[in-house]
């Protein structure tokens, strides 16, 4: 009997760091970038359903990205993984700074302190979509800015996991902080830093899953695949 071929695995992210993690792990995957506006997603959710904790915000955004891509034709008969990271410091959630001055302010707050990086993972299985199921409530909420709907295919089976890790920062000078911010490295990263880049010299300790801090946890992916009836080895090249 011929072994059943594993479905395609789609990464709903343009992140080079996430791609690098998958490539290093030998995972066979495709990239289809989500069109979700993260700021609009959070604002819409809060207006509709109330405040989110930083960890819940990361998972909500991961789900929104995964469902956005999963609802497109390019994701038919595939598993779609959405990820998002939110940095928490003293109970406040911080996303991407985007601007140099914002990154400088973030680093001045973070130095000498410990924060938590929450990375949400949401894995959608479009191979088992039920045409009889109602569209998900979250899709209805986010349809305004995704421009897509799951109503045609119904509720999609999914598995989810949030991985949280603690990062303790050193005491960089104001000059070092500005030099790092102006390098642009952390402007598109939650917390205004990248663990694998130049910020490493200003990080004293990491407790948790280093991959999840960079952007995606292959250990979490393996657990989610198992819950959906798959094994991560099905998606790894020899």
From TrEMBL:
One Pfam family recorded for the sequence: Maf
Protein name (record): Nucleoside triphosphate pyrophosphatase
Catalytic site positions: 84
UniProt GO MF annotations: nucleoside triphosphate diphosphatase activity
CDD domains: Maf
Cofactor: a divalent metal cation
GO cellular component terms, A-Z: cytoplasm
Cytoplasm keyword on record: yes
EC number: 3.6.1.9
Annotated organism of origin: Nesterenkonia cremea
Domain of life: Bacteria
